[in-house]
Design brief:
This protein has 935 residues and is α+β, with helices and mostly antiparallel strands. It is built from 33 helices and 30 strands.
């Protein structure tokens, strides 16, 4: 009878592969994170070892293999400089709560991962076929599994003979044994009489799992053994084998979680107990057997003892269980609620009064910096010695308290020694990784990192689940938001931590007040900015912090129209011997003096050039660069402007103003080559400027239009090779489909204008595609035919034109007939191309039209067609007086007048030279380029 149970798959893992032995690089076993690399002819193995490395997690996203390696800095220079076969790129990136190593696989490459000997391994295969080792056998969905039972008085053994290996979970829950498989199938279960001491089994199948519930007394032991594709479950008697214990550890790097190392984990399956009605999860794993030996309870989840796999109970609705390779992670969106790791330590001696723990984990107390009666050096040595002794003791006794190290840390942070404090805390974490979940350790390390300008690392600490909801952490997060220009978040976080700001030392209260005032200022809340500045000034903070607040006050004066007061304050702060404060003040002086007419643009540019090198690496540098770049643009110094704006590089990309600077750079390039600002430059200068900054060309229609405009300018001055090079880059590197075919047609036209028909054919043939617009297809045929004609392949050219009768095709056809000395045929086409033109005698003929008249007349003369020549002469004789080639027109339109049998091609050789149709075609092609670009 089927059991009504509900389930869901969370995530399927990557199949594991057994690697052959090979040589590995040796590394110090005591390093918290050790990366070892080895290779054989089939694959490369990368191992992550050490107390931090063995907690690494591996996941696959498309062609990227991502290894989360915690907050410890990793040396990946070997991998980056010499990527393994099958890997195209190796990079690291900072993420919330740690860092990740990203390996991009080449097409056809593959990867496998697992754990072994206390390390996480990653096998990289250049050829995916080697990783697969042939297709793995699978179970046909819905297939029948005949379960065999062997019963005795005190035990029953059930055998599940699958057709291929499957993952399983076996555990007791209350008065029933549950057997869960990760594959859907139909079971043929034995009758109740064959179940010995157990009750009648009931089974159910879901979309991708099968579950069996077997009633059994609590005193009956349960064991599971997997051999090949057969799972054997024994209920009662003595356990038949001891399953490998699944290691479960705590992870506090980001959201607090439980992480189980279970080789061959396949999926998490959510089920509902029909007798109780609650929801729980089973995590299946492949053979051999492995289980959780002891009950483990937390507020949010309970891990049951299992004979195979994992079983998780929860009373929450948002618990998530993910399988990533051999790691199973149990967590919630905001992390599990767990006691701090230090709770397991022995009780520490009473702390000195002035170095006691603060009420909140990320708070700094003013008393921590007190050196006492003996002075700073003596206090430092005493605290350092106590911390060192405690570290030595913790090597032998893991329950050794951490209070001495924390007292030393508090003293260092209170004294402004952020680097030293970080070193003490990192050493404690390396010794005991579970301290990552200690709120005070994460809070104080984040504070120390923020105090020395390591804002990204500080944000990783403050984002830890152990600090969720802490008001002192909110204050620091507001400060970090202000440093990166996220003003709205800064105000929100400062407001969330307002209740505890007054408990910080005066110097930090002044800094927080100034940062909050700047955020209010940027969001337009000037009254709040005034109030916060007054609060900052009232703290009697050190001079540097007061000057920082004065800078914000100067900005406030600017926004309220008090430019004279603002200029005075800027000048006063600019005299400070602190470059980090004086530089932004000097920038304010230059900008206000320029706006008030007290300084010329040339003087301002010279001052800014000096200022650009005075202070580097933060938002002040970006502000100086933006100001100087804008000044150069306004003066028409385009190259200096672009070089200045690009000089910041991408290393400052996370700073406030970085996005605006990139926008300025893009807008300047657009103004030059799209809006016409560079039209005043000589074409050669314009193209040189474009090539030097070609990486700024926007993707899409705007970038293509820039190139076409620049091409038109080069064509106008007959710089055809340079123009062709521009279009060739577009065709080869940027465009696809119809757009590529269109630009390739223009490129072929340029090659023909430059008398390079072979390259013209290559451009046309290399951009062929289906479903082109009819007009574009017609244009491309005419260009291809003209190129073939220039190569002397007249029949092929006429075949290419086919039945096209449009103007460009007729021009090429007439030219081919002329070259073949089919005078009458060519003359008819030239005259047809002049249809209707004779009626407008007020408008002189264009150069191309004159060429057609002359050639038509000569063709009729050479073809001895006097009637047609007379008709042509009557129609176009009125245009002779104003013709460019008056004599040639007159001679060509004269009737034969007794020249029958005398006129030949040599007779009219001079006239045909004056009627050069190629020159006319070039002129019309140039005109077409102007029309396309609005020139």
């Amino acid at each position: 009878m089927a059991l009504g149970a509900m389930g869901a798959v969370v995530l399927g893992p990557m199949a594991a592969a057994v690697a052959p032995a090979f040589a590995q690089e040796a590394a110090a076993p005591t390093d918290p994170l050790t990366i070892r690399v080895g290779a054989n002819r089939d694959f490369t193995r990368v191992e992550f070892a050490g107390v931090i490395g063995q907690r690494s997690r591996v996941r696959r996203e498309g062609q990227a293999v991502i290894v989360r390696i915690g907050a410890t800095a990793a040396d990946v220079s070997r991998l980056r400089n010499d990527p393994p076969p099958g890997v195209t790129k190796v990079e690291t990136r900072a993420v919330q709560g740690g860092s990740e190593l990203v390996l991009t696989l080449a097409p056809g490459a593959d990867a496998r991962t697992g754990t072994d000997d206390g390390a996480v391994w990653l096998n990289l295969y250049a050829d995916a076929a080697r990783a697969a080792q042939g297709p793995a056998p699978t179970v046909e969905p819905g297939s029948l599994v005949r379960v065999a039972a062997e019963a005795h008085d005190d035990q029953v053994t059930l055998s599940f003979p699958w057709t291929a290996p499957v993952g399983a979970a076996v555990f007791r829950r209350g008065d029933a044994v549950w057997v869960v498989f990760d594959t859907a199938a139909r079971l043929e279960m034995p009758k109740q009489a064959a179940m010995g001491p157990a009750g009648a089994a009931r089974w159910a199948t879901g979309p991708d799992y099968t579950v069996v519930r077997i009633p059994a007394r609590n005193d009956l032991q349960v064991s599971a053994v997997g051999q090949g594709a057969t799972w054997t479950v024994t209920i009662g008697g003595a356990p038949t084998s001891a399953a490998t214990a699944v290691e479960v550890t705590r992870d506090d790097e980001a959201a607090t979680a439980l992480v189980a190392r279970m080789a061959g984990a396949t999926k998490a399956i959510w089920l509902t107990d029909p007798m109780v009605g609650d929801r729980f999860a089973a995590v299946t794993a492949l053979a051999p057997g492995k289980g959780n030996g002891a009950l483990r309870r937390t507020i949010d989840a309970t891990l049951l003892p299992t004979a195979q796999g994992l079983a998780v109970e929860t009373s929450t609705d948002d618990l998530t269980i993910k399988t990533e390779g051999d790691l199973v992670t149990v967590t919630r969106p905001r992390g599990l609620t767990m006691s701090p790791p230090s709770q397991a330590f022995d009780e520490a001696p009473e702390a000195q009064d002035k170095l006691k723990k603060a009420a909140f984990p990320a708070m700094i107390l003013a008393g921590w910096a007190d050196p006492g009666h003996d002075g700073f050096a003596a206090r430092y040595r005493a605290l350092q010695d106590a911390a060192s002794l405690e570290t030595i003791q913790s090597t032998d006794d893991p329950r050794t308290p951490i209070e001495a190290r924390m007292q030393f840390t508090r003293f260092l942070i209170g004294s402004g020694l952020g680097f030293e404090a970080i070193g003490v805390l990192n050493a404690a974490i390396a010794k005991t990784p579970s301290l990552q979940g200690e709120p005070e350790i994460r809070g104080l390390r984040g504070a120390a990192r923020a105090s020395i300008g390591r804002f990204e690392e500080a944000e990783a600490d403050f984002s830890a689940g152990a600090l969720a909801g802490d008001p002192s952490t909110k204050v620091w997060q507001g400060y970090l938001d202000a440093q990166r220009g996220d003003w709205a978040s800064a105000r929100q976080n400062f407001a969330a931590g307002a209740a505890v700001i007054d408990d910080f030392p005066n110097a930090w209260k002044a800094r927080f007040g100034a940062a909050h005032a700047q955020a209010a200022l940027e969001l337009g809340d000037l009254n709040a900015a005034r109030t916060l500045l007054a609060y900052s000034f009232s703290q009697n903070a050190p001079a540097a912090d007061q000057l920082t607040a004065r800078l914000v006050q100067s900005r406030l004066f600017e926004l309220t129209g008090e430019s004279d007061r603002a200029l005075a304050v800027y000048k006063a702060v600019a005299r400070a011997p602190l470059d980090g404060i004086a530089t932004p003040a000097k920038l304010g002086v230059i900008k206000l003096s320029l706006a008030k007419g007290l300084m010329t643009p040339v003087q301002a540019a010279a001052e800014l050039e000096q200022l650009k090198w005075r202070w580097r690496g933060d938002a002040t540098e970006l502000a100086v660069i933006r100001t100087l770049g804008g000044l150069y643009l306004s003066q028409g110094r385009y190259r200096e402007a672009l070089e200045t704006l690009r000089g910041a590089g991408k290393q400052l990309g996370n700073l406030p103003g970085a996005a605006e600077l990139q926008t300025d750079l893009g807008n300047a390039f657009r103004a030059l080559f799209l809006d016409g600002a560079a039209d005043g430059l000589q074409p050669v200068q314009a193209v040189a400027l474009f090539y030097d900054f070609r990486d700024l060309t926007p993707v899409g229609a705007d970038g293509d239009e820039m190139v076409r405009r620049l091409t038109r300018r080069l064509v106008d001055v007959d710089l055809l090779p340079q123009a062709a090079e521009l279009l060739k880059h577009q065709v080869d590197e940027r465009l696809e489909g119809v757009a590529k075919a269109q630009v390739a047609s223009d490129l072929a036209t340029l090659y023909l204008m430059d008398r390079q028909p072979e390259k013209a054919l290559q451009a046309i043939w290399g951009s062929r595609t289906t479903l082109l617009p009819t007009a574009l297809n017609t244009e491309r045929r005419a260009i291809e035919a003209r190129a073939l004609m220039d190569l002397g392949r007249y029949d092929h050219a006429l075949e290419t034109l086919g039945t096209d009768t449009n103007g460009p095709a007729q021009d090429v056809r007439a030219e081919i007939l002329w070259k073949q000395q089919n005078w009458a045929g060519a003359a008819k086409i030239y005259e047809a191309r002049l249809a209707g033109r004779a009626a407008d005698t007020a408008t002189p003929l264009s150069a191309a039209e004159e060429s057609r008249v002359i050639r038509a007349g000569i063709g009729y003369s050479l073809g001895r067609d006097g009637a047609s020549l007379g008709r042509l002469s009557r129609a176009f004789q009125p245009f002779v007086e104003r013709a460019r080639s008056r004599a040639a027109m007159q001679i060509a339109l004269d009737t034969l007048n007794g020249m029958d049998g005398v006129a030949s091609a040599t007779t009219f050789a001079g006239l045909t030279a004056s009627a050069d149709t190629f020159a006319g075609w070039v002129a019309s092609a140039k005109e077409e380029f102007r029309k396309q670009t609005g020139g």
